[in-house]
């Protein structure tokens, strides 16, 4: 670029920066979290509370006792699972906002087995059958928008979102209709029999082992397999993928089936491991928060473990500050949103740099 | 006949918040920015409008309904605009990914709305609720005219926001097709590099369109919170706005970025959302009936594939960041 016709160079201009060393990039991201917490602290201060005390209470209420820690992990496990589900789709730049619905569909199918097949099958078989059925159902639910996207290029963001409301609407129907617990005052779906509840390891349902296994699976799948490579190419450029002879439609559908299947597994562990029943809030917003987790961790499964743990601490801690300070639990959503917004902003400082006007007249050429 | 009349009236009332969201998003998308934070901005607008009218009512012994309406609209617009400003700063200046930034804004805005809604409630001792005068400001139709039989109910019985939404749609359509600024804005959305070369201040256009668009979305949130026929009637209900914002984003596609068509499309989706209360079908359980608007939206998303015409396409640069130095 030349400046021959420009009398004066602008005071500040923006230029792409050569890749920032990894350590510095991580530092920028971590400091953006601190900026977000600082902004949140200002908000707490404005409401007339001491931010230091409130933050300390969040930590205390989420990890400092074994019961609190257990319930924090129970939040982190499905969150991590849902984030792992979203990762392959996002890598492909397929904006799967439908994890919430895919979780719900998996949960519905798992509930069917837990309620109606519990007498016919021994527990271990029941778990495996329900697990597989939930995964397939979630996968198929994810396949619907993928099919239309792959074939005709429909908008997947809205499609997946609408499917969320449809899946949740269906649960509401089951709750007042065929699956209603007749003995209750309010319409609800019955609690599962003991035989249909997942066993616990260290006081937490076995879902956590499955999710940790999935972390390793997704890492290997995304970085060490042909499928993972194809996903990355489609995400970068559909044309490149097509020119090199990849079957883009197949890749999109296959990846979304996998994405939905993992979400379906999360649904299975929510009903069989945590809630022991199905309700319209079974997915509990995890499908949406998972988008945040996946994006913040740059789709790296190991980073997701840390981020989902961090957000679980915020979520659990917010319940504590509601009891102790009377600050609404929605504070965790506000903080999560702030953190995400700050981290999105911080990417700029990793990719670009400011070039200030040189003091010498005329500028550099 | 009476049921049908009531059904039409209810449809219009249900369509209005969707129309606000749709119009705001059309203006935003015309600048080339896909803001998926409509729902978040609706939450922000809704809670700010409620707070504004509530504190106005508390401060003054005899609240005036015109002032109350103005304060509600003003606060909702401003707060939602603030949400849009965050989005604009991140996507226009800092070039963040528009999809994710929009989703982040939804998370933030939903939390913001629920958080301050509950703070307001706690401060008011239990739950926050506005008085009859202010409720009337957001519910009442046009005096005298509304008492004409049938026509009065059908045409003049709505609250001022319904008329405002329709007027806004017409205004936006005129702005986008007949004014120089509007055409410039469309140029920015189609090809920012060309617009830049032609001397149009691209960044300014993008900022202004996104922020005003966000403000308009906020009015949809205000409507849901304040209107009692199709909302909560001046009370904050946790997650009350949930779902509307996404429907609005979908209606933008349904209406093919055309503000006039948006009136019809939001009416269709709005009427579907209240259909079960007026025309229950015996063999369809009401819980299934309630997902019809979402099913319809899915159908629209599929349908739209098959009618791709030159006039139906989204702005060419929608979703792409513009970086002058990379031309």
Separation, N- and C-terminal Cα atoms of chain B = 61 Å
- Quaternary structure classification: heterodimer
CATH architecture of chain A: Orthogonal Bundle
> What is the name of the CATH topology of chain A?
ABC transporter involved in vitamin B12 uptake, BtuC
Biggest interface, chains and residues, is: A-B, 52 and 49 residues
Q: Name the overall outline of chain A.
A: globular
User: How many domains comprise the coordinates of chain B?
Assistant: 1
Number of helices of chain A: 13
How much strand of chain A? under 5%
Largest sheet of chain B: none
Description:
The complex is a heterodimer of chains A (365) and B (327). By secondary structure, chain A is mainly alpha-helical. Chain A has one domain (50-326): ABC transporter involved in vitamin B12 uptake, BtuC, CATH 1.10.3470. Chain A has helices at residues 22-46, 51-63, 66-91, 99-116, 123-152, 156-176, 207-224, 226-236, 238-243, 248-275, 286-296, 301-325, 331-351, and strands at residues 12-16, 200-201, 204-205, 352-356. A two-stranded antiparallel sheet of chain A has the order 1-4. A two-stranded antiparallel ribbon of chain A has the order 2-3. The longest helix of chain A has 30 residues, at 123-152. The mean pLDDT of chain A is 87. Chain B is an all-alpha fold and 327 residues long. Chain B is built from 14 helices and no strands. In chain B, α2 (38-59) crosses α10 (202-226). Chains A and B meet through β1, α6, α11 and α13 of A and α3, α4, α11 and α14 of B.
């Amino acid at each position: 670029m030349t400046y021959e016709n420009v009398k004066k160079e602008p005071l500040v201009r923006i230029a792409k920066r050569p890749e920032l060393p990894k350590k510095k990039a991580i530092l920028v991201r971590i400091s953006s979290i601190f900026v977000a917490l600082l902004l949140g602290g200002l908000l707490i201060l404005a409401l007339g509370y001491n931010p230091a005390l409130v933050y300390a209470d969040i930590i205390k209420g989420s990890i400092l006792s074994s019961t609190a820690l257990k319930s924090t992990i129970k939040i982190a496990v499905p969150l991590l699972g849902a984030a792992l589900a979203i990762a392959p789709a996002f890598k492909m730049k397929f904006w799967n906002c439908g994890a919430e619905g895919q979780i719900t569909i998996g949960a519905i199918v798992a509930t069917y087995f837990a309620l109606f097949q519990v007498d016919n099958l021994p527990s271990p078989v029941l778990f495996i059958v329900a697990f597989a059925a939930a995964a397939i159902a979630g996968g198929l639910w994810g396949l619907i928008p993928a099919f239309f996207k792959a074939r005709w290029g429909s908008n997947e963001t809205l499609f997946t979102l609408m499917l969320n409301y449809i899946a949740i609407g269906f649960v509401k129907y089951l709750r007042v209709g065929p699956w209603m617990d007749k003995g209750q005052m309010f319409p609800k779906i019955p609690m599962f029999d003991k035989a249909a509840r997942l066993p616990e390891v260290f006081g937490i349902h076995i879902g956590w082992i499955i999710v940790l296994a999935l972390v390793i699976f997704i890492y290997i799948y995304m970085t060490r397999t042909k499928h993972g490579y194809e996903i990355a190419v489609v995400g970068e450029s559909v044309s490149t993928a097509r020119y090199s002879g990849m079957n883009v439609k197949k890749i999109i559908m296959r990846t979304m089936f996998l994405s939905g299947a993992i979400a379906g597994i999360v649904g299975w562990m929510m009903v069989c491991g945590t809630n022991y029943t199905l309700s319209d809030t079974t997915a509990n917003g995890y499908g949406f928060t998972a988008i945040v987790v996946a994006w913040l961790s740059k789709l790296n499964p190991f980073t997701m473990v840390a981020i989902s743990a961090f957000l679980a601490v915020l979520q659990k801690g917010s319940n504590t500050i509601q009891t102790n300070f009377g600050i609404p639990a929605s504070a965790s959503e506000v903080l999560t949103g702030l953190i995400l917004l700050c981290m999105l902003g911080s990417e700029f400082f990793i990719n670009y740099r400011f070039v200030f006007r040189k003091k010498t007249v005329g500028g550099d050429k | 006949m009476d049921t049908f009349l009531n059904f039409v009236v209810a449809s219009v009332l249900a369509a209005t918040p969707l129309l606000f969201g749709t119009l705001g998003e059309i203006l935003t998308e015309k600048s080339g920015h896909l803001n998926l934070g409509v729902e978040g901005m609706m939450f922000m607008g809704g809670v700010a409008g409620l707070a504004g009218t509530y504190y106005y009512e508390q401060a003054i012994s005899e609240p005036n309904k015109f002032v109350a309406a103005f304060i509600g609209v003003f606060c909702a617009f401003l707060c939602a605009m603030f949400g849009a400003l965050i989005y604009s700063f991140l996507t226009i200046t800092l070039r963040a990914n528009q999809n994710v930034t929009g989703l982040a804004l939804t998370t933030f805005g939903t939390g913001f709305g629920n958080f301050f809604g509950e703070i307001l409630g706690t401060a008011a001792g239990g739950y926050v609720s506005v008085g009859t005068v202010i409720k009337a400001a957001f519910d009442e139709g046009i005096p005298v005219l509304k008492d004409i039989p049938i026509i009065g109910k059908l045409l003049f019985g709505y609250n001022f926001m319904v008329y405002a939404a329709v007027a806004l749609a017409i205004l936006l359509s005129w702005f986008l097709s007949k004014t120089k600024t509007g055409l410039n804005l469309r140029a920015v959305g189609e090809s920012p590099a060309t617009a830049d070369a032609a001397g149009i201040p691209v960044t300014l256009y993008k900022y202004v369109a996104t922020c005003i668009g966000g403000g308009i979305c906020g009015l949809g949130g205000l409507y849901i919170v304040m209107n009692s026929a199709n909302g909560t009637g001046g009370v904050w209900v946790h997650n009350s706005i949930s779902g509307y914002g996404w429907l609005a984003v979908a209606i933008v596609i349904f209406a093919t970025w055309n503000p006039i068509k948006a009136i019809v499309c939001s009416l269709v989706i709005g009427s579907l959302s209240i259909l079960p209360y007026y025309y229950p079908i015996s063999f369809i359980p009401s819980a299934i009936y309630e997902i019809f608007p979402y099913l319809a939206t899915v159908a629209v998303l599929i349908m739209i594939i098959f009618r791709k015409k030159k006039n139906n396409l989204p702005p060419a640069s929608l979703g792409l960041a513009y970086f002058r130095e990379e031309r």
